[in-house]
Amino acid sequence: MRSFIKYIFIISFGILCFSTTCAYSQETAPTFQSLISSGDKEYAKKEYIKAKTYYQEALRLRPKDASAKSKLDNTLQKIREESKKEEQFFEHIDNGDNFYSNNELDKALAEYNKALKIFPNDEYALGKKQEITTILKDEKKKLDSFNEMVTLGDKLLKQDKYAEAVMQYESALKLYPNNSAAKTKYQDAKSKKEVYDLKVSEFDRLCAQGQEFTLRKKYAEAIDAYEQALQLFPDEIDISNKVKELQATKKVADNYLSKISEADALYEDRSYNEAKAAYQEALSVIPDDSYALGMISRVDEIVNSPEYRKIQSDKAKIDSDFANFISKGESAESAKNYELALSYYNKALELKPNNAEALAKKKNAEDMIMYAEQQRKEQERLAAAEAEKQRKERIQNLINTGNQQLTSKQYAEAELSFNQVLALDPNNAVATEKLGIIAGFYEEIQRQKQENYNRAMSDGQYAMDSRNFAEAIRQYNIALTNKPGDEAANQQLTLAQQYENMRVAGLQNEYNGFITKADAQFQTKNYDKAIELYTKAINVGTENPYPANKIREIGEILAANKLVTLVDSSITINSSDTKRFDFEPVDVTTRRGNYILLKAKNLGDRPFIMYISYGSKSGRNGGFTVNVPKNQDVNDFIVRIGSQYKWFSEDNTWIEILPENGNIEITSMEITKGN
């Protein structure tokens, strides 16, 4: 049994060597260096038999290589040292028999050859070798055919000849049905063939589609179809040439259709001479085109007819009337009378319904009318909201006044206040309740009414003498409330109203004068002068919100164009103290339009003067004086510093604030510019 085990061990060793040699024959031939490297690796792992095989294979490539020979000698020495010759022989024989019984003839032959290298004259080994050699010759022919088929299949696959490659792999598998490599290649080729067939099918479909579109003269669609086909097979020269031809044809067709469309439009507009010229241009693109020739003949027939002369005459009048309406519309539009302008443009369109110029002008006029209407509605909304706000404030003020008057037993005046509330809000519960209370004090009220009447008449006369006509009107109304229909009070009221109307008219004239001047300053961007004039308009007392809104607009303009922030948090400067603020010079291109925008509050109870100076390292270059009012509000001060020559001609780097005879709190200060 032990002898048998040794025999098997020896034979297995030989088969391992032979299988490595056989593997080389079936794979791509290794290089000398790779064999040496493989041998070294096996030697390092003490696989001396494998190392010997690699070195032997390397020596077949370079028989005279001393290094390989030395490596092989060392390896053989190791084999001799590690194994006994006899054990190796029997091991090879046993391995060869096992391989033979499993029909692994190449491996068996390798083992028998290894055994014969140990004992070259052994009859058993020689007999087995002869037997296997005969079998392998027949198998080699089969294997050669198999390899030829697989090699040819690989070549065809690389050439994208998938159907032919599939046939070669199928033939190879008939020889070796279980060969996994051939099966894998067959499946790969078959898959690629299916993909390729789908690609060819899609290519053919796109080409057919391109041909169909070409016949229908849908050149853009045809080009798109062919270009999609080229994405599948970019090397198809015929299709590429077709695309180029179609692109040229499409260019001609597009040019032709463009000129025909232009000519047809002119024909529809009865511009026959221009239409004929356009049809002739179309003929220069496609000579002998029947449509263009037919239209030219039709134009000639029309132009030479008596009816055409009348048409031309009518057209000239239409053109003249059209131009006149357009001109009038433009004049009306310049005067911002968009409704009138729209009526003229509509008349122009009645003459030329599709005229682009008239349509555009009509749309612009409609847009301006819509914009004006939106502005009007917005102004009405704002006015209504403001009026409602004022109404509610007036109601509350009257209620507060009425309550105070009721507490002071001024019943007549309280009654007047609460009646005024009901005039503004007929369902006001507070006023209704208070009037009920007042009714309970009727006798006192009657007495009070007489007293109030007398006082109101006296106060009214005093107000008349003081030319305070609004107060006189109020007093006479109080008198009439206490003694309705009183002739003396009515006469005085009428007189006071006449005087007040005269005063208000004068104030309105004064207000209008300030507004006109202020608007002119605003238009020329002299914002400081504009604010001064708008403020004067406010002080006239017409209660018109326009000047306050314009002052707010100026503040927003200047705030939006801020250049330098000098103060962004509150600081206090005491009387006669100087505070300097440094900054980098402002861009010279903006200096002429520069302003100082300053928000400050008087901390005292009297007005005073504030000095604003500016300069640079070389000294003071200029300045302004500003009157600070005595109110405790945060006031806006706007100084047009860019108006001074030294500001825009010098690179100023500081601004100083000096309050005189008063303390001031500055909440913000900026250098800004107008639009």
Fold and architecture overview:
- The protein is 72% helix and 9% strand.
- The chain contains 24 helices and nine strands.
- The chain has helices spanning 2-26, 32-44, 48-61, 66-82, 85-101, 105-118, 123-158, 162-175, 180-215, 219-232, 237-268, 272-285, 290-303, 306-334, 338-351, 356-407, 411-424, 429-439, 442-465, 469-482, 487-523, 527-540, 546-560, 645-649; strands at 564-567, 571-573, 579-582, 594-602, 608-616, 619-628, 634-639, 654-660, 664-673.
- The strands form two sheets. Strands 1, 2, 4, 7 and 9 form a five-stranded antiparallel β-sheet that branches. It has a four-stranded antiparallel β-sheet with strand order 3-8-5-6, with no helix packed on it.
- A hairpin with a 2-residue loop joins strand 5 (608-616) and strand 6 (619-628).
- Helix 1 (2-26) runs parallel beside helix 3 (48-61), helix 16 runs antiparallel to helix 17 and helix 19 packs antiparallel against helix 20.
- The longest helix is centred in the middle third of the chain and has 52 residues, at 356-407.
- The N and C termini lie far apart (115 Å).
- Mean pLDDT is 85; it is low at 1-13 and 15-26.
